[in-house]
Specification:
Blueprint (H helix, E strand, L loop, with lengths): L7 H12 L4 H7 L8 H17 L1 H5 L8 H6 L3 H8 L4 E6 L6 H6 L3 E8 L2 H13 L5 E5 L2 H6 L6 E4 L2 E2 L13 E2 L6 H7 L2 E6 L5 H7 L3 E9 L2 E10 L7 E8 L2 E8 H6 L10 E5 L1 H6 L4 H6 L2 E2 L7 E3 L7 E11 L2 H7 L3 E7 L5 H8 L2 E12 L5 E8 L1
Parallel strand pairs: 1-2, 1-4, 2-3, 4-7, 8-10, 16-17
Antiparallel strand pairs: 5-6, 7-9, 8-9, 10-11, 12-14, 12-15, 13-14, 15-18, 17-18
Helix pairs in contact: 1-3, 2-3
């Protein structure tokens, strides 16, 4: 961490260039105007502040903030998801085993009296510590080292928070908690010896059922989406709890949180009724789809499914639904001559349980993106390929 970056003239330079959305490639070629700061260090700070504008507005607005390398900034929580997590915890003491840039800990400190921020990377720990001072987050202690070792030397705490990172990407999109650092399943005995409550944040790429097999005493799983994009999975563990796991599918849009909750055991025992398309079509939001509430929502909203694997729902009644709602204009069989006859020039296309990708459909039938018409290419309860022509309601 180069403290020369914190000098007033340098901060003014960083603010001006980031406010102007400077071309970083040109900036780097021009070189640094400051003797003790190289251009790569300046570019990191300017790029960091640009990226923080929407994700971390408080950091963006505050002079003297020091930004970490881009990867660390990209991996950190946004203010929106950090605030959501802070509402899940309470008590006097929380230890964060994987503190990182410290966004979550800043918001935890608004709810918990003492925060212990552990970070293996010495420079990142120094950066977080500096920023906490700038933001007057004086109840956060920073410790450099392995979070598990630091935890082993602490008394019991109210909460343990962990954001494990993947060791490698060799397994592609599918991964397991055992592939991460720290290895949470391997260290559950230590974790539960220090706290009754554990909060784990994982990528949405983690399979929920594999996570449940790896962990113990999972009280709740929160699938958190922002603007219908799933950002993270939150696992709340409570020592010795015997209740069935509650899954909450949460979608946050413009600071408004809409949640749908269901019990995992009940979801497995529900058999949805199937139907051909009725007056309205309902498409669940991304959080519900990731959570796997495919049958629970049929019960909750008195809906029927178009097909066991299509995950589109239908009814003759209009409802307020956690997702998108459409009125059916017409239902067409999937046939080349019919699509050509209809002459769809522009439409919004979605495929559900359909063998052809959206890009291929657009190319094959020369349909541009956009407009007021929505086409769902799907399979109905009679295993027929079909097209639902709809308008949004």
């Amino acid at each position: 961490m180069n403290t020369d970056i914190l000098h007033t003239k340098v901060q003014e330079y960083i603010f001006k260039k980031s406010d102007d959305n400077v071309d970083l490639a040109k900036l780097i070629l021009a070189g640094s105007p400051f003797q003790h700061i190289n251009i790569q260090e300046l570019a990191q700070q300017i790029n960091g502040r640009i990226k923080a504008k929407n994700k971390l507005p408080l950091w963006h607005q505050t002079k003297g903030i020091y930004y970490p390398p881009t990867l660390n900034l990209e991996q950190t929580s946004s203010v929106t998801t950090a605030l959501y997590k802070s509402d899940l915890i309470s008590g006097d003491t929380l230890v964060d085993l994987t503190g990182g840039f410290g966004i979550d800990d800043y918001y935890f400190s608004k709810k918990i009296k003492r925060i212990i921020h552990c970070e293996l990377n010495a420079e990142l720990s120094e950066i977080a510590s500096h920023n906490f001072r700038i933001l007057d987050a004086n109840t956060i202690e920073t410790h450099i080292g392995d979070g598990l070792n630091i935890l082993d030397n602490l008394d019991t705490v109210d909460w343990i928070y962990i954001d494990p990172s993947r060791r490698h990407d060799s397994k592609g999109k599918v991964f397991f908690l055992e592939d991460c650092l720290p290895d949470v399943p391997k260290n559950l005995d230590l974790l539960f010896s220090k706290s009754k409550h554990i909060l784990i944040k994982t990528s949405p790429l983690l399979d929920i059922h594999s996570g449940l097999k790896s962990l113990q005493f999972v009280k709740e799983i929160h699938v958190v989406a922002v603007n219908n994009e799933v950002k993270e999975l939150l696992w709340i563990l409570e020592k010795d709890i015997q209740n069935d796991t509650i899954i909450k599918a949460v979608n946050i849009v413009k600071d408004k949180t809409k949640a749908f909750s269901f019990l995992l055991k009940e979801e497995k025992n529900i058999l949805s009724e199937l139907s051909l398309p009725k007056k309205y079509i309902y498409e669940p939001n991304a959080a519900i789809l990731k959570a796997g509430a495919f049958h629970s929502i049929t019960n909750a909203f008195r809906l029927e499914k178009l097909h066991q694997h299509s995950h589109l729902y239908t009814a003759d009644h209009k409802i307020e639904f956690p997702g998108r709602s459409f009125e059916v204009i017409s239902v067409l069989p999937y046939q080349k001559q019919i699509l050509k006859r209809e002459k769809f020039v522009k439409a919004n296309i979605t495929t559900r349980n359909f063998p052809i990708a959206v890009s291929e459909i657009r190319k094959k039938f020369k349909i541009k993106d956009g407009g007021d018409i929505y086409l769902f290419f799907t399979t109905n309860c009679n295993d027929e390929k079909t097209i639902l022509v709809c308008k949004k309601v």
